Amino acid sequence: MASSEIETLTQALARLPGLGPRSARRAVLHLIKRRETALEPLLKALGVVSETLATCSVCGNVDTTDPCGVCADPRRDGRSICVVEEVADLWALERSRLFPGKFHVLGGRLSALDGVRPEDLTIDSLIRRVEAGGIDEVVLAMNATLEGQTTAHYVAERIERFPVRVTQLAHGLPVGGELDYLDEGTLAQALRARRPLG
Amino acid sequence: MASSEIETLTQALARLPGLGPRSARRAVLHLIKRRETALEPLLKALGVVSETLATCSVCGNVDTTDPCGVCADPRRDGRSICVVEEVADLWALERSRLFPGKFHVLGGRLSALDGVRPEDLTIDSLIRRVEAGGIDEVVLAMNATLEGQTTAHYVAERIERFPVRVTQLAHGLPVGGELDYLDEGTLAQALRARRPLG
């Protein structure tokens, strides 16, 4: 059917999350039929990113510059650092445009099961940033999973001795969440953390 | 959040069929985290295809060689030509490995609505292939849609004057199809084309 070159491209695309062999084939046909408007732009964009891709030496974000766009932005409040597990989490928070400070990407979460220890994450580099001073608040924004929360507690303990405020994202009902459909863990969390009405 | 280069790549990926803005972002993160094993292979495969992509001057297939792999294969039976609407249809038939002959890609279907006329398709080039001789059978494998069938009839009429057998894919119940769930058109077709039992 298709030459081995086209087959290779199909397989490379099929390995992307969200695409399987079938949709990768459709994508390849799409690219092939639209050489100027789809294939060439994608090739160029990939090439540029491949050439300039860098991990930020300050926060661990991935960007085409080092320090990354967030760290280099003078309008961001350098006094608060939001600690996240993965680059994807940083991007998710950035899309919401709610956090005006800087970030720190741990590169994962502590996990006895997967054998991830503190030294496998960028916790030491976070401590050095806090140690260097000029920071008022560290916001722990790990996932609300067992491993995420274990990591949060570990990081909180390590920062304890510095004069910074350590906070954590609130846990409770998601917006639009209906009690009837929520799991018990979320309900328990929401009840425990109940607050006086405005 | 991400630099404009990464944003450009996300948008290029989001335009692929089967990917939206959200899954394109996930794909970009996947590529960025796996630079050696995902980004570079995809970049290379795209580059090779972009450089070598060619439309077969014989049958209209898209491949990295001209004539394409199917036309150049000496083991294929050049006496039968299977006529399809699109390259995707040729690939679908090739995946089934059921047709041992060669192909002809029309590049679309006749459509009064979309203003597609016979001269917009590669019908003349098909006629020239038939005229050149050495062909016993032309298999019409257009889609079982109104426009596909109109196209099939038009092509059949044009080939009529040559001494070749013109056949068409059978229409009827799909394998595993339950009468109860099939549309009336398919049922009518299957009934009309009923055959004596083995």
TrEMBL record, chains A, B:
Q: Which GO terms of type biological process are on file?
A: DNA recombination; DNA repair
Describe, by residue range, where the zinc fingers (C4-type) fall in the chain: 56-71
GO molecular function terms listed in the Swiss-Prot or TrEMBL record: DNA binding; zinc ion binding
Q: Does the keyword Transcription apply?
A: no
SMART domains cross-referenced by the UniProt entry: TOPRIM
Where the record annotates domain Toprim, the positions are 79-174
List where this protein forms a coiled coil: none
Work out whether the entry's keyword set contains DNA repair: yes
Which keywords accompany this UniProt record? DNA damage, DNA recombination, DNA repair, Metal-binding, Zinc, Zinc-finger
Q: Which InterPro entries match?
A: DNA_Rcmb_RecR (IPR000093), Rcmb_RecR (IPR023627), Rcmb_RecR_Znf (IPR015967), TOPRIM_dom (IPR006171), TOPRIM_RecR (IPR034137)
Sum up the protein's function in the record's words. May play a role in DNA repair. It seems to be involved in an RecBC-independent recombinational process of DNA repair. It may act with RecF and RecO.
Question: Which family, according to UniProt?
Answer: Belongs to the RecR family.
**What is the designated name of this protein?**
Recombination protein RecR
Q: What is the lineage of its organism?
A: Bacteria, Pseudomonadati, Pseudomonadota, Alphaproteobacteria, Sphingomonadales
